[in-house]
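INTERNAL AUDIT FORM
Audit reference: QA-55
Scope: verify that the stored structure record matches its stored sequence.
Auditor: D.O.
Record contents follow.
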Amino acid sequence: RKYSPTSNENVREINGITHSLDENNNYVTTVLEEKNIYRENYNKNYDIMKFALPNVKVGSIIEYNYIIESPFIFNFRKWEFQSSNPKIKSEFWAKIPANYNYNIALKGAYKLNFQDGKLLKDCFTVTYGGVADCSLLKYRMENISAFVEEEYMTTSENYKSSLNFELIEIKHFNGTVKKYSKTWDDIYKELKTDAEFGLQIKRNSELFKPKITSIIQKESNQKEIAKQIFEMVRDWYQWNNYMGIYSDLGFKKAHESRTGNVGDINLALMGALQFANISTEPVLISTRNNGLPTKIFPVLSDFNYVVAKVNLNDESILLDATDKDLPFGILPYHTLNSEGRAIGKDSCYWVDLIPKQKNKRLEYITLKLDSTGSFVGSVTTKYFDYDAYDQRKKIKKFTSKEEYIEDLDEKLNKIKILEFKISNIDSLDLPLIEELTVKISGFDDLDASKLIINPFVFSQIGVNPFKLAERTYPVDYGTTIEKTKVFQLEYPENYKLEYVPPAIGLSLPNKGGRYVYQLTPVNTNSVSFTESFQINKPVFYGNEYPHLKELYNKIIQTNKTEIILTKTN
């Protein structure tokens, strides 16, 4: 980890040994060579040290050790008992000078099998003569299962069993005490006057002055003014993919280059909104892959993202101007992580990050089984909110709509797209609409006495994302979900409906979600099928996991059901 040329962590004395048996069953040790140790640049704040242990094969035992020198004493390096591999035993020893006071917290599902602490006299000495005792702390866990990652989760760092250290204070040898654990009042005062945070908001208020003045002259509705200012800032800047709660380039350079990190862009947005006299507060966020922020006491380094909270009468709206595909009032998926901390006008407070918008989709399918044995018709899909955002991203990865459709056509098994229309690709406040005219391979001919048809021709759930016998960490969708499909099939008049699968209605406990499927005849040669899937809350906990897993199992079973038509003449 590196912050500046004089403030870096360093790794040294990397040693490794591989213990193996050769082809004659003789014990062999192979030592790690320096040529197999190398440094890789990860980003501007981090390098990665990598090493490749030699002669590793099935049954080998590996040993390695290294020393990390770090100036970042606030976050004493944590120890992860649990990893992606099962462990018979994991033990951690820490020797900490008595004048360093840390808050030590155990995280995760496992408990310690052993812990002990004892005093070591005069173990810590500094160059100018100070001597201190040390605490020797020992912690051990046994029979630790592997941490297996599944879909719909935030970072595994939130849930692996680990020991974490936060510095509270240092008692210096001259008698002074420096406290590192702060109150939210301390954080509030610090951020308000920080040159790269609070003062950036004030400085940014002048940047868009002519454009904001023009908007205010044309509009009287505060929500519409906020929306137009948001769109102006969003369309002005290009996010450089760096996160952070602070401005990196500074208001002037970021504005002139039309680029910046999260802090540069969203602090500029707040300055512009405040210039228009719209109540706006910064909200500090820890993104989904960064971990949950500590709530027992404030740890500013927990947060790596900042968004704007607009307060309009009795309505609060969270805004992020870093993504040109984000509509007004929707935060990107990577920010949906429990709660954020708002730096309000007079105080700090927690803000719920559960979005009002859903991951919502409506699908309308109309097909006719023609005389050639093929299904022809149309598929219209309407994407809303987060589903629309995701779909716009998919489409815009291609150079044109035509290229996207060509790729989709190649992926759809037995389905040929004849015509297409995509609406509202850049109208972010409207649902994205895809209209396809399709031809689907069906039967070689229609002379068969019996035809078997699976109505789940599109959007079929084929694999259960939940496979663990037990999941100790939450299922976190980020949003609620609503998927609805309406499918109407017309078949030749010389066939009749012999079998229709029975209707199914499944619900999760406590109204957590539901699945409904119903197929009914419409007239003598037409059948209608409706499927609805809802997840009504974004987070499910360990005791709810079996119900969620079983719901998906039932859906997969249902997706295999078929309609049977028999020939009448």
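Auditor finding: record pair retrieved intact. The chain has a mean pLDDT of 90.
Action required: none
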